[in-house]
Amino acid sequence: MESRLRVQGHPIQPMLVTFPFGLFVSAAVFDLADVAGGPAFLGEVGYWTAVAALVTAGLATVAGLVDLWDVRIGRANRTAITFNLVNAVMAALFLLTCLIRAHAPQRGATGGQLATELVALAVGAVGVGLGARLIQQSDRGRAAEPAGWETFDGVHGATVEIARPRPF
Fold first, then answer.
1. Degrees (nearest 5) of the Cα angle 147, 166, 160?
2. In sequence order, what are the residues at sequence separation of 6 or more whose Cβ sits closer than 8 angstroms to the Cβ of residue 162?
3. Distance CA 111, CA 84 (A)
4. CA 46 to CA 30: how far, in whole Å?
5. Start-end of H helices in 69-143
6. Higher pLDDT residue, 112 or 141?
7. How far apart are CA 22 and CA 53, in angstroms?
8. What does the alpha-carbon distance between residue 133 and residue 82 come to, in Å, rounded to a whole number?
9. Which residues pair with 160 in a beta bridge?
């Protein structure tokens, strides 16, 4: 799968996907500490961390949809669509808990909301596996990139590219 949105020749979407997943995990950890009897502010931190994750998930989704536009029909296409749907389900479950908590005075999580977040993280773990499969599918047939300090040879500044779509 060739990405249209790239930085230094590397696709942007796989980089962006790590932010929401990491923030969702952090939100669940804060909420777990809150539900387990920790200070009340941990629930508030968990709520705002989940909100930040939803914002970054939106950015990653936009980049994923741009990349999905050029994926040829086949195994990579099915994997990419499934990957995006799984990530959307994870984000939707967190959105549900955030919407419920938005009007609460403390914004702390309940046991049921924490359970919903843990189910969302399990769904997200499936997305991580699908993302790894997409990376493997896109790396087949490519030459190995330089490793170590050779990576920085000839780099004079960051470049961001938006490639034109390939004709079918």
1. 45
2. 4, 5, 6
3. 28
4. 5
5. 75-101, 111-139
6. 112
7. 8
8. 11
9. 7
